[in-house]
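User: Teach me something about this protein's shape.
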Amino acid sequence: MISRIVFRQPCFKILHVATRYYAGIHQRHPVIRLSTQRLNDLKQKLAGGPIPTASEWSEIRKSILDERYFTATNVDSTVLGLCGSLDSGKSYLEYLRTKGVNMNFAMINRLLRLYRIQGCDTGQLSEQDQQDIFKLYSDIRKDTTVLDATTCEHLIGALTLTDHWRLSFELLDMIKLTGIPDSSTYSFLIRKCFLSGDSETGWKLLKEQSDNKRLPNDDVFLAWLDYSISNNRSIASDVVKMLSFTKDASIFLSKRVGTALKQLDSKTGITASDARVTDQGKCSHCKSTMASIVVQEQSFRALKDAFLQAVVIKKEIFNNTTPEELRRFQTFLNNTKPYDIVIDGLNVAFSSGNQKSPTGYAIQIAAVVKHYVQQKKRVLVIGRQHMDRWRSREMKYIRQKSFLFLTEDLSQDDPFLLYAALESGPHTDFFSRDLMRKHSFLLGDELCTVFKQWQQQHQYSLLTIKPDGKVLIRTPFQYELFAHQLPGDSKCWHVPLVEDCLKLHKLEKQTNWLCLKIDK
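Assistant: First, the predicted structure itself:
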């Protein structure tokens, strides 16, 4: 039994670990790993086929110890990390027990991970496995009052597969002592809340997860749908609640959740169909035009006023420049604004790689400047002072046809770019491939949403420059990017779908959409 392996004294010993500053993210240490070939060989051996015998475990352990950097302290967690199944991990722990090897936290976390994998693969752990997880938790807590964040995260992942899942709340609070719980930890617990009928706590945690900039996984929303169906609730109302949350939180649902929505019985009042959306915002299924994004004048003014203090002065530029440079820039803006377009010069220069000559970089920028000058646009280019050494006719063209401001080489140019575009007015666009996420986070939740809408409306970026000098530009999608109701028809929703809901996606139109008719 696993309980005999892990919990018999003095076989089990708690080792203290250093405090982490950010839950879910390890502090930087030298990376210790096997060679790629050796790693693949062991994974293949342990992933399938019969479980190794004691002599084979001994050989595997010895072969890893023969590798550089591996010691008796880290070898066993490495082996457990390579195990492809819980049974394989238990077998290795039984081998270690016979050798009198104590378990450390790294090994415990690897074991807890195997329980999580087993639960996901089979849908449910056996009663014995659930008892073993609780016994492991109980013995750890006897010896340690406050656990490190990594162990808490792994324990939550395992406990939420058992009837003792409510013990996870105390562990969640422990994680918050030193950082923010990761996406998986929140998602495991929220899913369990929904499946156990505690929807109030589930939604409270989901709101907290969103506020902490953590993305929920598919299982959270699938569990919400299961909860609604199994409890004979109004599925239509619950789907609207879910879609409204994704809209407010600016997150995407995955194709997996989209499939679940399409499979709902029509008796629920929901009909979901696959759709495409044109660049003009027209749905291929219902032929309607989606809602346009609009940044109200009052919201724009609030964003403009807050940006200088929240991003430029307090958090960003003053870390790498001086107040004198900011004053020089403000004087420059006052003398030259407004602009139609503000261009991130180096972003354009390096858009096709950083192996070109200064002349090559200048050609890139000049081509974009020319594109807008030919449209009689008023152009500002933001660059850095080393660009002043780019002696070429293209740089001469840039200086003659646009306004050019060069920051110090160590300065961050994104805040200058955004500040100039905002100061210039609500009709000014900006040109860059950067996602600008770190700047939006500094503005707070309400203005972060306004910033993203403004960014979506006004950000252009370079696709390519053809050999004849013609510039191809990605234009912004002027319609709602996230799930939303059709203007004038609250029963019709358009929902974008992505492959991976845990990935941060660009502010651009998604390829796959659902067109939903919801009759509550």
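Now, about its shape. Confidence is low (pLDDT under 50) at residues 1-31. The chain has three domains: 2-174, 182-286+488-505, 297-474. If you'd like, I can walk through any region in more detail.
User: That's plenty for now, thanks!
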